[in-house]
Amino acid sequence: MNPTVSSLQYWLVNHPSILNFSWIQGQTLGSSPLFLSLTLLSYLSLTFLLPLLRLPPLKPHILRSISIVHNLILLLLSFTMALGCILTIAFHTPHLHWIICFPPKTPPSGPLFFWAYVFYLSKILELVDTVLIIVGNSIRRLTFLHVYHHATVLIMCYLWLQTSQSLFPLALVTNTCVHVLMYGYYLMSALGVRPKWKRVVTDCQIVQFLFSFAVSGVMLYYHFGGSGCSGFSGWCFNAVFNASLLALFVDFHAKSYANRNKTQQSHKHKEF
Questions:
Q1: In which band, very low, low, confident or very high, does the pLDDT at 260 lie, cut at 50, 70 and 90?
Q2: Is pTM, for the whole model, over 0.85?
């Protein structure tokens, strides 16, 4: 095996802290329902109360510096999670179909669940996105889609671990890969570079949801055609959440780029 791959395999899959990880409700940091509830309550309270306080916006250079650090951390974290989960699937998963259907009563332990746990914690860090929008005096960017996505995805990730939900490894890999692209875009924007592929990020998010529905069909085949798949109740929540997100993203995509096309056509008419 290539020495680089061997080293990555140790640090991202076979390290004792990863290999021996177990999610235990009430013992693992952030695993209690109370922690989840208080985190969501704090997030929603700050989201609705901070704009009412009308605090003076942060100075542009301070906000820019915080945004650069925040986006860089999430970019690197997303890349690491994607790589760690891919290596776990390649070198540690007993059977390939486990990435779609865990056997019933699979305990939430081992490398796959470690990366699901890191993913769960990263969603708490992503809540800072909302605070930066508010303190940056860009409240018009704070949409229902943004708040709904950030709040509900935290519940989804909690259920991944609590129910040992089947199919989450594929969801984790696709989501983190999209986030590498997304936070790469945000980082470049914070650095003063405006990439021309903003629309690609939204398109990839929509494709991600469509892919999740496609592989869900395979999971349902395994579940009802065999001995069942672990975490089916968690998957039901995930499926409804993804369907709602897809509808909101398609609506956002249509409105955003329809308005942009109208603006461009208006400029052309004026020039003519």
A1: low
A2: yes
Beta pairing partners, 22: 109
Tell me the sheet residues that pair with 109: 22
Nearest to 181 by CA among 160, 159, 163, 199: 199
- Residue tagged 């398609």 (tokens): 250
What pLDDT score does 214 carry?
94
What are 82's two structure tokens? Answer: 């994607």
* Nearest partner of 128 among 56, 72, 206, judged by Cα: 72
Q: Report the C-alpha gap between 269 and 261 in whole angstroms.
A: 12
Q: Tell me the mean pLDDT in the region 29-45.
A: 97
Please report how the helices 144-162 and 111-125 are oriented relative to each other, as an axis angle in degrees rounded to 10: 150
Least confident of 45-49, 53-57, 132-136, 223-227: 53-57
**Residue 185 is which amino acid?**
Y
Report, as an integer, the average pLDDT of 232-260. Answer: 82
Active site residues: 149
Q: Which helix (H) or strand (E) holds 66?
A: helix 60-91
